[in-house]
């Protein structure tokens, strides 16, 4: 069994929607830090880019809660994690949670840091604010990451070292209680090199992507009809984001990227539910490899290293059965299938990539439906992966 650590991953439970950094390894490391910063009840760790699109908002325990900055609470939490991209490790986070008004979701100001057993590390500072009954939603993040991972190339996997600085700003306006539109700005300065002396250098096709400074601007939409943002059992959520990225001090052309994610939830009883996810992603030819569509990163699908299947187009479908055995313990059975390709017509040319698995859940909070999760997946390539994180994958 390939006991690889699952990359830091931000989940909705931590007040983070998705990292828009196309879920590259760098963004995922920063995302893990973000996750740590935004967990209610001192226990949380992931979700996007992904630093990502829009960040989910932590739900409050009740409308009768006190509000105002001075009536908030401090949270400090260690969060263990494991994933197949950067390995296993620990994230440490501290946050201040408060409500700006009785009708808005919980706002968060947080600081976090993480380190994995392969030497990857990251630190980040985030602010996630909700105003005027969630009419205005503001998310600000800044972080620095230094990560090591295997980049899968036509010549096989290459160990690489990527470091960089990342900042992201999201501003969204709620047209209704369920529908919001917003804009996003992102800054990324990153460099990539081989991680082990004496090994061959990366193939020439990757050289243009090794040292880049990028400014990204985009538009996002979110139609959220879920009954709960931490542990949804009914409803649906449709999110979309389209961005254009400009390369500073480079003659390379700008590149575009867009993706759409649809999540649906169906209750089967008091303790059972089904969850579904469908994702479609597209990027233009000039997109650096770390910002391309990815099975495992763009869609949070379990079973594959997030740099294993990268291309300009991807789509995937996932399903999960969730069962609660009581107030604390639960379990899931999940499966997913995805495709990548240079364009939509070639998505199936390289075959499908599928995985199934089992997971255990332990409810870490009596106030919020937040779980500590351990998943074991088995892919159609015969690889087994272990994932440890807080919250749900979708």
Key features?
mainly beta, 394 residues, single chain, two-stranded antiparallel ribbon, Porin, 16-stranded antiparallel beta sheet, disordered N terminus
Task: Give an account of the 3D structure.
- 3% of the residues lie in helices and 53% in strands.
- It is mostly beta strands and 394 residues long.
- The protein has one domain (12-390): Porin, CATH 2.40.160.
- The protein starts with 18 loop residues before the first strand and ends with a strand.
- 52% of the residues are buried.
- Mean pLDDT is 81; it is low at 1-23 and 34-65.
Topology, please?
Elements: E1 19-20, H1 25-37, E2 51-52, E3 73-83, E4 87-98, E5 107-116, E6 121-131, E7 136-153, E8 156-174, E9 179-194, E10 211-224, E11 235-247, E12 255-267, E13 272-283, E14 293-294, E15 310-311, E16 313-324, E17 329-341, E18 353-363, E19 371-379, E20 384-390
Antiparallel strand pairs: 1-2, 3-4, 4-5, 5-6, 6-7, 7-8, 8-9, 9-10, 10-11, 11-12, 12-13, 13-16, 14-15, 16-17, 17-18, 18-19, 19-20
**CATH top level assignment:** Mainly Beta
* Major sheet: 16 strands, antiparallel
Counting structural domains, the number is 1
Mean pLDDT: 81
Number of strands: 20
Order of helices and strands: EHEEEEEEEEEEEEEEEEEEE
Radius of gyration: 19 Å
Specify the CATH homologous superfamily.
Answer: membrane protein fhac: a member of the omp85/tpsb transporter family
Strands across the major sheet, in which order?
Answer: 3-4-5-6-7-8-9-10-11-12-13-16-17-18-19-20
How much strand?
A: over 45%
Helix and strand content put the structural class at mainly beta
Helix proportion range: under 10%
Distance between the termini: 25 Å
CATH topology: Porin
Low-confidence stretches: 1-23, 34-65
Tally the helices: what do you get? 1
Architecture (CATH level 2) name: Beta Barrel
GO cellular component, one term: outer membrane
Protein name: BamA/TamA family outer membrane protein
Organism: Parasedimentitalea psychrophila
Main location: membrane
């Amino acid at each position: 069994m390939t006991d690889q650590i699952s990359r830091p991953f931000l989940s909705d439970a931590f007040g983070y929607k998705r990292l828009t950094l196309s879920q590259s390894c760098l963004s995922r490391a920063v995302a893990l830090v973000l996750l740590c910063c935004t967990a209610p009840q001192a226990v949380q760790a992931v979700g996007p880019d992904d630093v990502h699109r829009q960040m989910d908002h932590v739900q409050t325990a009740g409308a009768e809660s006190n509000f105002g900055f001075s009536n908030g609470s401090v949270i400090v939490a260690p969060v263990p994690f494991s994933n197949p991209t950067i390995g296993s490790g620990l994230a440490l986070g501290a946050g201040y949670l408060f409500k700006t008004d009785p009708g808005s979701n919980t706002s968060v100001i947080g600081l976090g840091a993480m380190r994995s057993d392969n030497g990857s590390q990251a630190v980040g500072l985030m602010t996630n604010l909700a105003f005027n009954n969630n009419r205005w939603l503001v998310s600000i993040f800044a972080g620095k990451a230094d990560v090591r991972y295997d980049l899968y190339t036509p010549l096989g996997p290459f160990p690489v070292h990527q470091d960089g600085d990342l900042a992201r700003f999201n501003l969204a306006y709620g047209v209704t209680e369920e529908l919001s539109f917003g804009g996003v700005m992102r800054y990324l300065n990153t460099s990539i090199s081989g991680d082990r002396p004496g090994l061959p250098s990366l193939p020439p096709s990757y050289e243009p992507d090794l040292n880049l400074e990028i400014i990204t601007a985009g538009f996002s939409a979110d139609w959220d009809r879920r009954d709960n943002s931490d542990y949804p059992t009914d409803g649906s959520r449709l999110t979309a984001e389209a961005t254009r990225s400009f390369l500073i001090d480079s003659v390379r052309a700008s590149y575009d990227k867009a993706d759409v994610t649809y999540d649906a939830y169906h209750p089967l009883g008091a303790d059972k539910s089904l969850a579904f996810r469908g994702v479609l992603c597209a990027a233009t030819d000039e997109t650096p490899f770390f910002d391309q569509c990815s099975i495992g990163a763009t869609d949070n699908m379990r079973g594959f290293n997030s740099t294993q299947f990268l291309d300009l187009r991807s789509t995937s479908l996932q399903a999960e059965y969730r069962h609660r055995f009581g107030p604390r313990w639960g379990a899931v059975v999940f499966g997913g299938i995805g495709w990548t390709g240079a364009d939509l017509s070639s998505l199936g040319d390289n075959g499908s990539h599928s995985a199934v698995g089992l997971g255990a859940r332990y409810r870490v909070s009596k106030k919020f439906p937040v779980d500590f999760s351990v998943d074991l997946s088995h892919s159609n390539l015969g690889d087994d992966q272990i994932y440890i994180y807080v919250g749900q994958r979708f």
